[in-house]
TrEMBL record:
The keyword Manganese does not apply. The lineage of its organism: Eukaryota, Filasterea, Capsaspora. It comes from Capsaspora owczarzaki (strain ATCC 30864). Keywords: LIM domain, Metal-binding, Zinc. It holds the Pfam family LIM. One of its GO terms (cellular component) is plasma membrane. GO terms for molecular function: actin filament binding; metal ion binding. One of its GO terms (biological process) is actin filament bundle assembly. This is LIM zinc-binding domain-containing protein.
Length: 308
């Protein structure tokens, strides 16, 4: 702010001491009047006989204003003493906040595009390579509705430059022709979901059972929750380890009362036997699968001893 020495033609009050200003006084740009000795710095109390700053009705010499309120431009590092802008927590002169690529001033309200931490105007931001984030200034390729430097468009698996060669897209990434079988296998595996957790099953970790696929860690007994890595039993849509199946649904031998695993013989009266436990009551010969068993008084006899 500036002041000028004026000859007071009619009585005016000093803005500091509120007494009449007689003779010469200091008149500020805002029209306020001071005695020469009353216009002082609010911090150091020295007379403001040169340039000074006005803030909220108080006046400061340059040194104290900078120390107390000064802001410096993040670009030119000089004091911002007039119009400034605040962007992402940093202060700039309005003329210093420019596009990193074209150097045009980015005005308040303009769209700002940040690439690698640097501000770009909306035009330059739309011309950036989707791989390296740098502005494209020469030939480029378009893929997936995005732009790439010709040297930046590479296979996501082996890193070879794709150029205009054949490629396949998977999960938004390009793959070269040589890696397509590998990607197709990965795509196939990703399409196979575990019937238990419903998450994708990767290579070499799937178990197929009951026409469904499972993670090896997900295929478990529905009773004790142990992993079913070998043989298992299924009943009414539930899976069982051998112990729990026999405990809940197993068949006991009517002769030895032990659980029956595998092939067994069942008589008309629904009694079940291990093949080695059912014998002719007369000759004690064991029966084999397919042999005729004759019951007399609910006891088994072979064909030779069917009659008393």
């Amino acid at each position: 702010m500036k002041w000028i020495v004026v000859a007071v033609e009619f009585t005016q009050k000093c803005q500091k001491c509120h007494t009449d200003v007689d003779g010469d006084g200091l008149k500020l740009e805002n029209g306020k009047m001071f005695h020469n000795h009353c216009l002082t710095c609010a911090e150091c109390s020295k007379s403001l006989d040169g340039a000074f700053y006005d803030r909220d009705g108080s006046y400061y010499c340059p040194a104290d204003y900078v120390r107390k309120f000064g802001k410096y431009c993040a670009k030119c590092k000089l004091l911002i003493d007039n119009e400034g802008i605040l962007v992402s927590g940093q202060d700039f002169h309005a003329s210093c906040f420019t596009c990193t690529h074209c150097s045009n001033v980015i005005k308040p309200g303009d769209t700002i595009v940040y690439k690698n931490g640097a501000p770009l105007c909306s035009h330059c931001g739309s011309q950036c390579c989707s791989s390296c984030d740098l502005v494209i200034t020469s030939d480029y390729l378009t893929a997936f509705d995005r732009k790439f430097h010709s040297t930046c468009f590479r296979c996501a698996e082996c890193g070879c430059a794709l150029g205009t060669n054949k490629f396949v897209e998977f999960n938004g990434k390009p793959f070269c022709e040589a890696d397509i079988p590998k990607v197709q296998q990965a795509h196939h595996d990703a399409d196979t979901d575990c019937a238990c957790c419903r998450r994708p099953i990767g290579q070499n970790e799937a178990i197929k059972a009951l026409d469904q696929h499972f993670h090896s860690s997900c295929f478990r007994c529905d009773v004790c929750k142990c992993e079913l890595s070998g043989s298992f039993y299924e009943r009414n849509g539930k899976n069982y380890c051998e112990r729990d199946y026999q405990s809940n649904h197993g068949v006991s031998c009517s002769h030895c009362n032990l659980q029956i695993n595998g092939v067994y013989l069942q008589l008309e009266d629904n009694k079940s036997f291990h093949t080695g436990c059912i014998r002719c009551q007369t000759c004690q010969s064991p029966f084999s699968e397919g042999d005729k068993i004759y019951l007399r008084e609910q006891k088994p006899y072979c064909e030779a001893h069917q009659r008393a």
